Each structure stands twice: as C-alpha cells, then as structure tokens.
Amino acid sequence: MSNDPIASAASDVRREAARRRTFAIISHPDAGKTTLTEKFLLYGGVLTAGAGSVRAKGDRRATASDWMELERRRGISVTSAVVQFAYQDRVLNLLDTPGHGDFSEDTYRVLSAVDAAVMVLDGAKGIEAQTRKLFEVCRNREIPIVTFINKWDRPARDPLELLDEIEDQLVLDPVPVTWPVGEGERFNGLIDRRAGHYVRFSRTAGGATAADEEVVAAARAAADEGSAWHEAAEAVELLDGAGAELDVKRFEAGELSPVFFGSALTNYGVRMLLDAIVEMAPPPGARLDAGGDPRPVDTGFSAAVFKVQSNMDPAHRDSMAFLRVCSGRFERGMAITCGRTGKTLATKYAHTVVGRDRSTAEEAWPGDVIGLVNAAELRVGDAVHTAGEPVRWPAVPAFAPSSFRMARCTDTSKAKQFRSGVRQLDSEGVVQVLRRPEGGESAPILAAVGPLQFDVAEHRLRHEFGAPVELAPAPWTTARRTDEDSAAVLGSMSGVTVAARDGGELLALFESPYWLARLQSDHPELVLERLIGEG
Ligand code: G4P
Fold first, then answer.
1. Helix pair 227-241, 218-225: axis angle to 10 deg
2. What pTM was computed for the model?
C-alpha cells in the first residue's frame, strides 16, 4: 500500500474502473431485449423470483425505462436509462437504447457512453430492419459486439444459415462460443466450445430463477439427446476445422462477434452470455479528448453528458442530465465545471437512475452513469470536470436528417411556451431544430432521422409545454453541412435552403438529391459535407 494519498486515490480509481463493464443491448423490437435485461438482473440478484420486474405489473409493455405516456401507447422505448448491478466481483452498467431506428441518433449518443454492446437476434427471424440500422450505429463507433441468438426454445432457423446472414449482411465475422443442442421444445443445452463440454439445462418454473446446469459427458449426451447431439457435435467439429476462433483484438475493433445461443425466457444460456460480457467486454479505458489526447481513467474527475431528459417525472417537472464518468472518482456534493461554459454546477442532487426509480449516488467511478437533476445548462456532448485544465470531448456529430417539418404554434397566446419547448427539445436532441433568418423562433424547421421523432416532439410540445403545434410537411429530403462563404452563394440559388442550428452550424437543405449532385458538379468549390448516417 502506498502512503501517498494521490497515488492511492489513483490506484483506487484504476481498481474500480477495472471492475466495471458498461454496455448496451441493441435489437429489433420483440427480439427479447427487455426479457434479457430482466434475466441479467435476475442473475445479478437484483430481481428475485416473483418480486419486482423490469416491467410494471398489468402493463406488459411498460419497462423500467419507459416513462413517457407516448412510449406506452406506442409500445416502443424512446428514452434511455441505465441499470447497475453486481455480477461476480464486477459492477455492470447496462444502458438502455431505443429499439427503433428512427431514434438512431439517440442510440448513437448512448453508444458513446458504452464500451460494448449485445446484439440480440430472434432465432426465427435473424437480422431484421432495426437490427441493421442499430448495428450500423455500433459500426460507426467501432463498438465491440457480442451476439445473442434468442428464442431457441421456439422453432428457429438453421444456426449455420444465421451465421452466414450475420457475415453477409453486417460484414461482421461471427464466431460461435456456444452451440445449441436441439431446438424448440427439444432445446436442452449448449456445447461450450471453449470449455469443450456440453451443458444441459433444466427449466425452472416460469424462468423465475436461474436455470439448473449440468455438465454432461459426450457418451451420455449422445445416448440422451440422440440425433440432436450428433448434429451439434458435427457442426462444432466443422467450426473447429474451419478455424472459427475468437480473436480478442478483432472483437475489440468491432470486426468479429462472439456468438451465443439461448433463450432469455427459460434462462438457457443467459449465464454464459453474462460471463462472456464480464470476461470479454473491455473495461473503461482512456478516452480521447477534443485535442486527440488520451485522458487516462486515473486522472482527475471528468464525465461526458450523453443524454438530457426533461420532465421524466410528471410530479416533479424537472430535467436530468445523464453523465458517464470517464475518469476519476465522483463524489456527491463535489463542485464540477462544464468545459463548454466554464460554469460550476452543484452535485448535491446526483442520482443513479433505474427508470422512474432514483436513488442518491454517493460516489461513482469510470464507466458508471450519474443523473444530475436540474442541470438545465448541460447539453449532450458536454464535458464536466473538477479542478485543473478544462476538459472538452470531440463534438458529437449530428446525424443526417432525412425528414423535415415546418413547425408552427397554432395558439398565438402560447408563443412563449412554444419557443421554450422547442429550445428544450433541441437541447435534448429529440429533434434537430433549424432556423432561417425569415422564420426565426416562431417558425423553426424540425429535422429528424425518422418520422417517429416528430410524434415525440409534437406530443411533448402539446402536453409538457402546453403549446399546440402544427407540423407541416416540408419539401427537403437531404441535408449537407456548409460554411458561411458557401452559404452566401447557396442562399441566392434556387432549390436550396440554408438554415442554422443553435450552435451556428449551417446546413444546406435540398429538395432532391439530383439537384444536390448537379450543384456539386457545377460548383465543386462549394462546401457541402456529408453528415453521418446518410444512406
Ligand atoms: P423487446 O424488448 O426486444 O421488444 O422484446 P421483449 O423482451 O419484450 O420480448 C418480446 C416477446 O418475446 C415477449 O412476448 C417475450 O416474452 C418473448 N420472448 C423473449 N425472449 C424469449 C425467448 O427466449 N423465448 C420465447 N419463446 N419468447 C421470448 P410477448 O408475447 O410480447 O409477451 P408475453 O408472452 O411475455 O406476454
């Protein structure tokens, strides 16, 4: 033990960071993300048999992270929260991501706060539309992905065919770590390729407790499982022969994905998946700052804002900024400074958040998420820090919007509420807000990656801010980033509109991609940069 308090504090931070695994689950709606989350909590000892559940009783679709009325009505999760639980001697932080690709910009921000992701596929369906969209976001961020092929207790597709699909459609190298023996009602266990043995499960009532596991020798497995065993053993031999081995470096680079089979419903394979997350997912490491310099985990406290959410609790009408701790130790009550504004914030009301339930966060370490109440000045992408040089993170890139609406408040007496509501939605990143000199604050353009974002914006403006709105269709389909000089030229051209974001960034909006292409070939000197996520 060191007697130097600074060295010993740094070693505490390194130790705590090494224990953390911060990850998210991505999946097409209905593939089993919520069920798997519940089962992780079950294995983590957070949920006990029959007691609380991620879902509220009587409302099958309401998960702990669903707190908006709209979400419940739609049956989709549009907001993000985090659950923290202990597993073995580790601390796992599971961040929720929206299940719909229309919110991929939001997903992107959440994924900026994780070190790994679990991609859940339905064994009968394989890769679905939203899986692809969300996966692309992971690829953009080079996040290591563990694949879980779920619902193996039901009739499923040929496992080799599913692997081919992952490889072909996602250009991701799938390497099975477990292999199923049987499927549907005859799914009895998994061959663990690394341990080289067969694990047989037995169901517990309603999947309410961990599945019983028994290691069964090959001869007995062959006798008990019959043809299912022979088929599985043959497939594993084939994989071994083909050299399908885990390469940690390629996994960490997001090029290869370890694959696990199982059933979140019956808990088969859930423990193996959790063990793999603990073992393979990288712990929090040094993060690059805006200048490209790595900021090691054991330097002074710093954190990144990845989500701002207002009025989570209708009874309180407050807003909360979610921060991922990047370095150092967070202690409740410490004064922190926002790198962008230089303003100091109190942290007396720091929380850890599980859906609507909050508990006070006394301390947090790299990889953990804290929620700050009423930190209205914080924006997504902001850095906060304690003493020393200000910290700035690289800018969070805005996604390419492909849907646009002209917003207008239909009740002139509510103009003030409308303006403040639009500003709030902008700072939360619910929609992108663009303004033209002639439109000003009263007629902003709302831009989105997917049209569901407009439903959320309209609902919130009406119900939270009391501003009834009309969102009229707008003609644009494509946006490009431009600069002041080019904007001056573009402003005088037809078929293009220049609008500004709150931070001053300028976007050129086009009604047709052909017009954009023509303009680019006629005027190569104009700055027209692509935004990320453009198809
Ligand atoms: P999501 O969050 O990804 O949208 O999926 P969710 O967990 O809500 O699961 C969607 C449906 O699939 C649920 O059924 C759930 O019970 C079922 N499911 C999840 N994992 C498995 C699995 O491993 N095996 C089987 N057979 N089903 C699974 P539901 O009909 O919507 O609800 P309910 O049957 O639970 O009432």
1. 130
2. 0.84
CA distance 254 to 192: 22
Is the CB–ligand 1 distance for residue 33 below 6 Å? Answer: yes
Closest-CA residue, ligand 1 atom 22, reads 151
The response to whether residue 207 sits with its C-beta less than 6 Å from ligand 1 reads no
Looking at residue 66, its pLDDT comes to 36
Whether the predicted pLDDT of 119 surpasses 90: yes
Query: Using an 8 Å Cβ cutoff, are 496 and 488 in contact?
Result: no
Q: How many CB atoms lie within 10 A of CB 73?
A: 11
- Nearest CA residue ID for atom 20, ligand 1: 32
**pLDDT at position 77:** 40
- Residue 122's CB is within 10 A of a number of other CB atoms, namely 21
Name the closest-CA residue to atom 33, ligand 1. 60
Contacts of 475 (CB under 8 A, 6+ apart): 404, 511
**pLDDT tens digit sequence for 237-260:** 999 988 888 999 999 999 999 999
φ/ψ of 184, rounded to 5, equals 60, -135
Ligand 1 mutation target, pool 26, 28, 35, most atoms within 8 A of CB: 35
Tens of pLDDT, residues 134-166: 888 888 888 999 999 999 999 999 999 999 999
Q: SS3 of 366, please?
A: coil
Beta-bridge partner residues of 189? 181, 200
Q: Residue 389 pairs with which residues in a beta bridge?
A: none
Q: For 420-444, how does the pLDDT look when each residue is reduced to its tens digit (9 = 90+)?
A: 999 988 888 889 999 997 777 789 9
Q: Kindly state if the Cβ of 29 falls inside 6 Å of ligand 1.
A: yes
Ligand 1 center to residue 35 CA distance, Å?
6
User: What is the C-alpha separation between 231 and 513, in angstroms, rounded?
Assistant: 51
- Structural domains in the chain? 15-280 (3.40.50.300), 290-385 (3.40.50.300), 403-522 (3.30.70.3280)
User: So what's the pLDDT on residue 347?
Assistant: 80
Of 353, 361, 372, 295, give the one whose Cα is nearest residue 326: 295
How far, in Å, CA of 22 to CA of 94, rounded? 6
**What does the mean pLDDT of the chain come to?**
86
Q: For residue 133, is pLDDT > 90?
A: no
Q: Give the tokens for residue 41.
A: 């909590």
- Residue 232 reports pLDDT greater than 80: yes
Q: Determine the residue of 27, 30, 149, 185 to mutate for testing ligand 1's pocket, defined as the one with the most ligand atoms within 8 A of the Cβ atom.
A: 30
Alpha carbon nearest to ligand 1 atom 25, residue: 151
CA 151 – ligand 1 centroid, Å: 8
Given the CA of residue 37, which atom of ligand 1 is nearest to it?
Answer: 7
- Tokens 């919130």 — which residue? 460
pLDDT of residue 259: 98
CA of 325 to the centre of ligand 1 (A): 33
Q: Is 264 a pocket residue for ligand 1 (Cβ < 6 Å)?
A: yes
